[in-house]
């Protein structure tokens, strides 16, 4: 089963986007190779849903975080090697020998460059293998080639480098016949093994790069628990894109599955909700997270409703788009999935009375779905007073505003309870809008 995160959620949390400088993908996309970038994209698009696999990947990242390494390969050489293998020979050996011989003849007759390009690609491949040989010696000396994330890479490299068929071509000068033989060996006999070695090399690139970013930013690694545990405990949660972010701690379990969040505009509600969603998404990828500690039961997916747009083509108002979003989430929750749900200011597209009634009814209904966890924020703090009758399943927290004269200051630190802070008019007055009018 695939981890669920639809386009709305991915956009709300700014998770994907190579060309979006503010995306979480861009934060980690500092890899050295094109192949590693492709692998990183795959990891972002396909979070894991098994605790064992999540923890295994986290341990690999943790290893490279504790054993700092420099990626030892040249990006251009790896790209050239990949292109050479993709364009390389196929078919039987006599056909390959004939094709190489023909390329050499055309070079001599009409100065065609296909033979020289073939030799160049072949030499690049050999140089990469020599780099692998040097790295293998270093890993063996340090004892890292076994029982570590290097183990699969080392085994793949060793299976090629130690093959005696390669030693016959270990010479600076090669005849056309030798060139054809080596070309056949690399692009036919060893082709699948070489491609596998490249894939593992790209994986190492991701491990080294991501763990380095985690070390620089003081990210940590989560512990994934089986789905049946039904808990989520996070300490020191912060948004990975916000410098000097104020950390907060949250916790959910089957008996307390809703966080009801109040606070004024600019108090940090949306940032906290996005930070939590991003943290859980990265945790299911096995990636480092912006938190001091995280233990979580594996979920089936994440749904968010932060920036729900209207749809003029379909004639949907902002409010109706919100209603459809809540309906979609309700259907998923009712299908017995384990989900993490973020609702930022439910029903803000309608009047206060309808928003009050709808927020109260929907939040109360969600208390019954104990396998799912919810963060629901609102400006309508009066709803909270009514929801207290639902018992301990709802946690009431707020982000406070401290008034210094007529200027609001935000602590961004969660407190228990419900706040009645409303500074909208104060901000409008401070900006001098009324004086202008």
Could you list some keywords that capture this structure?
single chain, 437 residues, alpha/beta, Rossmann fold, 12 strands
Kindly describe this structure.
It comes from Chitinophaga niabensis. This is MutS domain III. Keywords: ATP-binding, DNA-binding, Nucleotide-binding. One of its GO terms (biological process) is mismatch repair. GO terms for molecular function: ATP binding; ATP-dependent DNA damage sensor activity; mismatched DNA binding. The protein is an alpha/beta fold. The chain folds into two domains: 75-215, no CATH class; 219-436, P-loop containing nucleotide triphosphate hydrolases (Rossmann fold). Helix content is 51%, strand content 14%. It is built from 17 helices and twelve strands. Strands 6-7-8-4-9-12 form a six-stranded mixed sheet, sandwiched between helices. α3 (34-45) packs across α11 (191-217) and α7 packs across α8. The N and C termini lie far apart (57 Å). 37% of the residues are buried.
């Amino acid at each position: 089963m695939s981890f669920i995160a639809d386009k709305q959620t991915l956009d709300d949390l700014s998770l994907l986007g190579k060309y979006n400088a503010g995306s979480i993908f861009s934060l980690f996309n500092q890899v050295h190779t094109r192949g590693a970038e492709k692998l990183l994209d795959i990891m972002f698009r396909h979070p894991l849903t098994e605790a064992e696999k999540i923890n295994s990947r986290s341990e690999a990242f943790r290893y490279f975080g504790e054993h700092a390494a420099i990626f030892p390969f040249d990006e251009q050489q790896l790209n050239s090697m990949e292109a050479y293998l993709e364009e390389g020979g196929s078919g039987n050996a006599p056909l390959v020998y004939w094709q190489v011989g023909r390329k050499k003849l055309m070079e001599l007759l009409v100065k065609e460059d296909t033979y020289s390009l073939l030799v160049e690609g072949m030499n690049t491949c050999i140089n990469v293998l020599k780099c692998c040989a040097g790295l293998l010696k270093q890993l063996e000396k340090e004892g890292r080639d076994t029982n570590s994330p290097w183990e699969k890479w080392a085994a793949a490299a060793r299976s090629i480098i130690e093959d005696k068929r390669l030693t016959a071509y270990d010479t600076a000068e090669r005849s056309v016949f030798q060139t054809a033989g080596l070309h056949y060996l690399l692009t036919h006999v060893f082709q699948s093994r070489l491609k596998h070695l490249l894939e593992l090399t790209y994986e190492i690139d991701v491990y080294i790069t991501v763990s380095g970013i985690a070390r620089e930013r003081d990210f940590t690694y989560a512990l994934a628990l089986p789905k049946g545990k039904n808990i989520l405990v996070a300490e020191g949660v912060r948004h990975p894109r916000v410098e000097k972010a104020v950390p907060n701690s949250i916790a959910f379990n089957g008996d307390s599955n809703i966080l009801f969040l109040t606070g004024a505009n600019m108090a940090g509600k949306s940032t906290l909700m996005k930070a939590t969603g991003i943290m859980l998404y990265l945790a299911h990828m096995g990636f480092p997270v912006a938190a001091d500690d995280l233990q979580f039961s594996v979920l089936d997916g994440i749904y968010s409703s932060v920036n729900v747009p209207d749809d003029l083509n379909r004639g949907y108002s902002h409010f109706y788009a919100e209603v459809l979003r809540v309906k979609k989430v309700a259907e998923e929750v009712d299908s017995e999935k384990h989900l993490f749900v973020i609702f930022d200011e439910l029903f803000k597209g309608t009047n206060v009375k309808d928003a009050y009634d709808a927020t109260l009814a929907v939040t109360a209904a969600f208390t019954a779905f104990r396998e799912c966890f919810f963060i629901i924020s609102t400006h309508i703090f009066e709803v909270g007073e009514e929801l207290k009758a639902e018992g301990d399943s709802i946690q009431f927290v707020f982000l406070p505003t401290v008034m210094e004269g007529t200027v609001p200051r935000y602590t961004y630190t969660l407190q228990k309870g419900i706040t009645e802070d409303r500074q909208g008019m104060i901000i409008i007055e401070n900006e001098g809008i009324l004086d202008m009018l």
